[in-house]
Design a protein that fits this description.
Layout: E1 2-8, H1 17-27, E2 35-41, H2 42-45, H3 52-59, H4 67-84, E3 88-94, H5 102-111, E4 118-121, E5 124-127, E6 133-139, H6 152-162, E7 167-173, H7 180-199
Parallel strand pairs: 1-2, 1-3, 3-6, 6-7
Antiparallel strand pairs: 4-5
Helix pairs in contact: 3-4, 4-5
Length: 200
């Protein structure tokens, strides 16, 4: 059984362009009975910013945590378990104000756990998640891929590498707010790439 964790982050739910791209990909593989898809919508999850209290809870031995710390640690523990259980991670990522959605950042903040998903060594950090791949579906109003203004691609690669995921594919739909013709072309190109990926 292959487990896929699909993480959505559009403010527009299933109508979001990034959600539509990711769901196009998922629709091509979900009939396969050997594939199980878990969906998480971090926009509706509405995790708060990471706090000092929450980090403190992580650093307190599980047996020593008080009731409030147990609840705080559980937020990240549950997310990490979901990520660990996945063979492939799908990220549906809109560009909002030149970066990833803050809801997705809040989710990532619960995934990066020293000693659990990465460790520090004398030669630098080492990711502890093994044998996972990731596919990113990026939707943008403007055009950024390959330019210095694409903050998302290097950030996502770096974050995923940091926790041990280096097999990463990107599908872009760009210029979606630059007129109908450009938007149609962007979706057609993304759709072709999705067909390529699902035929692999
Ligand atoms: C709050 C907000 C901020 C945005 N900021 C940017 C931006 O910085 N750059 C850009 O190219 N498009 C920007 N857009 C346009 C979105 O990237 C575009 O509509 C994309 O399709 C959103 O993905 P979604 O439909 O999955 O939410 C922004 C849209 C919103 C709602």
């Amino acid at each position: 059984m292959k487990t896929i964790l699909a993480i959505f982050s559009s403010l527009n739910g299933t109508q979001g362009n990034s959600s539509k791209l990711a769901n196009d990909y998922l629709s091509k593989i979900e009939s396969d009975e050997s594939v199980q898809i878990n969906r998480v919508d971090v926009a509706s999850l509405a995790l708060p910013h990471l706090t000092s209290e929450e980090m403190q809870a992580w650093m307190t031995e599980a047996s020593e945590r008080d009731e409030s710390q147990q609840a705080l640690a559980k937020i990240s523990d549950d997310i990490v378990e979901t990520v660990k259980a996945a063979d492939e991670i799908i990220l549906a990522v809109p560009m909002y104000n030149f970066g990833i959605p803050s809801s997705l950042k809040a989710y990532f903040d619960r995934i990066a756990r020293a000693g659990i998903t990465f460790k520090y060594t004398e030669t630098g950090p080492v990711g502890l998640l093994e044998n996972k791949s990731a596919t990113v579906f990026a939707a943008r109003g403007g055009v950024y891929a390959g330019s210095d203004f694409d903050t998302q691609t290097p950030y996502l690669k770096h974050f995923l590498n940091f926790i041990g995921i280096s097999d990463i594919q990107f599908v872009y739909a760009e210029g979606l707010n630059m007129g109908e013709e450009q938007a149609n072309k962007a979706f057609a190109d993304a759709s072709e790439k999705i067909i390529e990926l699902t035929n692999d």
